[in-house]
Design a protein that fits this description.
Arginase, Chain A, 8-stranded parallel beta sheet, 309 residues
């Protein structure tokens, strides 16, 4: 029996974030030993290098707050093709880059799932819902729109390629959410997205909500994508992010989620996004994200080597 294959795909996406530095993320993951750590678990690791987006033309939009819309569209198209191709065999792991990259990964993975006759489910581990459209965002930061785009919300036609197989909003689970704009709060509720915010986790823990969601994925024979944003974690343990929101997941909560995901055997792809090495402390956040990826791929927290900073 061959070892599972993981393809590492760098995406130096910076166009969606408000602060510079996310484009250094792929290098930081490599420097923190992601490939070596996963290889040590018996996985077949292929580092496909970093993607380069195609040429683009900026298009004016009535929302004057938007920035880099043309580059975002080019990245989305490039990432969609890469995600579709890499998901044909093994588990692609996308190294971001800001969270706008998920517009492309979800588009490509939705296409792959549709070709397999399976629904795509998404576990969105993030302080934010990223459910704005091009019309509703007031910040203009496009890392706030990928989930709205991938689920087929209106407001993207003419600016981004239409997702070939939009994800059903009821197949999306937000976990760790704690910062929603009023417009997003209404949109998420009306769309039927499942939300387990930090109050839910405080009251019920992570086990029961996640177990229920994974049960739904298994019952539907779904393909599961996990999108892990650094700001899902409490900034006390993960300072290397430009969108710090206090009160995030603890070290053990995050590892428990990863261990449960591994035990489920359902995860087919992974985003690691919003790492900003310029804001990190001696690689602390990069190492933690590598450790979490390792837990998802089979390493138990008791096997984690001691680190000093």
């Amino acid at each position: 029996m061959t070892n599972p294959r993981c393809t590492l795909i760098g995406a130096r996406v910076q166009v969606g974030a408000g602060r510079l530095g996310c484009d250094m993320g792929p290098s930081a993951y490599r420097a923190a030993g992601l490939a070596e750590t996963l290889s040590g678990l018996g996985l077949d690791i292929v580092d496909a290098g970093d993607l380069v987006p195609g040429p683009f033309v900026e298009r004016p939009h009535p929302n004057g707050a938007l920035r880099h819309l043309g580059a975002f569209a080019a990245w989305t198209e490039t990432l969609a093709e890469a995600a579709h191709a890499a998901s044909a065999e093994g588990i692609p792991i996308f190294l971001g880059g800001d969270h706008s990259l998920s517009a492309g990964t979800l588009s490509g993975l939705g296409r792959r799932a549709a070709e397999e006759g399976r629904p795509l489910f998404v576990l969105w581990l993030d302080a934010h819902a990223d459910f704005h459209t091009l019309d509703t965002t007031t910040s203009g930061n496009l890392h706030g729109v990928p989930l709205a785009y991938a689920t087929g919300r209106r407001g993207f036609a003419g600016y981004l390629p239409a997702p070939p197989a939009p994800i059903h909003p009821g197949h999306v689970c937000l976990m760790g959410t704690r910062s929603l704009d009023p417009a997003e709060r209404v949109a998420v509720r009306e769309a039927g997205v499942l939300v387990h915010d930090m109050r839910t986790i405080d009251e019920a823990g992570v086990v029961a909500p996640l177990r229920d969601f994974l049960g739904r994925v298994a019952a539907a024979r779904g393909r599961l994508h996990v999108s892990l944003d650094v700001d899902f974690l409490d900034p006390g343990i993960a300072p290397g992010v430009g969108t710090t929101v206090p009160g995030g997941a603890t070290f053990r909560e995050a590892h428990l989620i990863m261990e449960m995901l591994h035990d489920s055997g359902l995860v087919g792809s992974l985003d690691l996004v919003e790492l900003n090495p310029f804001l990190d402390e001696r690689g602390r956040t990069a190492h933690l994200m590598v450790d979490l990826a390792a837990s998802l791929m089979g390493r138990r927290v008791l096997d984690r080597p001691t680190q000093s900073y």
